[in-house]
Amino acid sequence: MLVLALDTSTPACAVALVELGALPVDPRRQADRAPQDQAPQDQAAAGRALFEWQALFERAVWDARRHGELLAPLVAEALAEAGIRPPDLAAVVVGAGPGPFTSLRVGMVTGAAFGAALGIPVHGVCSLDGIGTVTEGPVGVITDARRREVFWARYQDGTRVGEPGVGAPAAVVAQLRASGATRVTGPGVALYPEVFAEFGHSADRADRADRADGADGADGPLVPGSPAPAVLVRCVAADILGGRTPAPLVPLYLRRPDAAEPRPPKTVTVAG
């Protein structure tokens, strides 16, 4: 089963093509312990263990101002390199943010268009999960929200705790400290190194991979600390393989866009 994955929630315009496959289930192990008898964390671990996945293509270009220009060529490159035709795709996965209004909309609209044209499901996933679900221990994931703020979420052993948020870096540090986080990761950390200095920087999968240097226009298999689209696929692999209907795509903007509605024209009074 072939899945196209997109994320434009950060300055990285990222595309992946992932092959998913279900693993055979040993009926003897199922009989030992029914899923309804498992704790929620055990059920989640079991769900992740019942499939295999392979990234056939992963690439990103780091340029916050060119998502609309870069995304379609990256998708075409992914399909061509893997020898895949669009009708071969079984699903699309899109990073749903949080992220800036314009860039996030590029990825979500593109993903929705692919799904509508091909008649395949489109799954939206919190983009921060593309970083946080491959971490260990109590970790905060930080991305740039502009306006001197950051988007963030806390993860415990790869599972997100609560909903993502947005706030000033100092306020986010206080919340992470109170929640027991010991490390931070993500592209937003480097923007405020002194603020996040009390936390150790997480060196998980997102940082160990061989990636581009993050300069505008740089491209590579992945971009430092940005959400990995292939990991987003893993987050909803069980739903895709199970044929479950995805929820409607809802972007996680978390605040109003920078653009403001125009004000009505001023009334001009002519002196008599």
UniProtKB/TrEMBL annotation:
- UniProt keyword Transferase, yes or no: yes
Biological-process GO terms, alphabetical: tRNA threonylcarbamoyladenosine modification
Query: Which GO CC terms are listed, alphabetically?
Result: cytosol
Lineage, top-rank taxon, reads Bacteria
Q: Entry's InterPro entries?
A: ATPase_NBD, Gcp-like_dom, T6A_TsaB
**UniProtKB keywords:** Transferase
User: What are this entry's molecular-function GO terms?
Assistant: transferase activity
Q: Which residues form the Gcp-like domain?
A: 64-161
Q: What is this protein called?
A: tRNA N6-adenosine(37)-N6-threonylcarbamoyltransferase complex dimerization subunit TsaB
Task: Give the organism the record lists.
Answer: Parafrankia colletiae
